[in-house]
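Hypothesis: this fold can be encoded by more than one sequence.
Test: take the structure tokens below, design a sequence, compare later.
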């Protein structure tokens, strides 16, 4: 493992979610909707058939699609960590309310 975690595996869960497995044993589910909303090349990711064409760069530092779109492993990880924290907060809040 290096100082910068690398993506080892990517799986398409459904039409808007990817599961990323990093070389430090962390796994994150990434909601692609915010990325698709950016527009330009990312709009093609709204189609699950295109989302499934994802590849991991040879060094594991990004995800690639045939149209030239490249998403950084670090940015995706930050998004995954943020989404995980948000889910935990919602879960804790709903437990307090219940």
């Amino acid at each position: 493992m290096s100082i910068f975690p690398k993506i080892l595996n990517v799986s398409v869960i459904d039409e808007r979610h990817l599961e990323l497995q990093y070389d430090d044993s962390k796994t994150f589910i990434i909601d692609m909707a915010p990325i698709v909303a950016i527009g330009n090349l990312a709009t093609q990711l709204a189609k699950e058939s295109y989302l499934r064409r994802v590849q991991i760069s040879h060094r594991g530092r990004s995800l690639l699609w045939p149209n030239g779109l490249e998403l950084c492993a670090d940015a995706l990880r930050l998004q995954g960590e943020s989404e995980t924290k948000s889910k935990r907060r919602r879960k804790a809040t709903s437990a307090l309310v219940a």
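The first strand starts at residue 7 and ends at 14. The domain at 7-97 is CATH 3.30.2020.10 (NE0471 N-terminal domain-like).
Hypothesis status: open.
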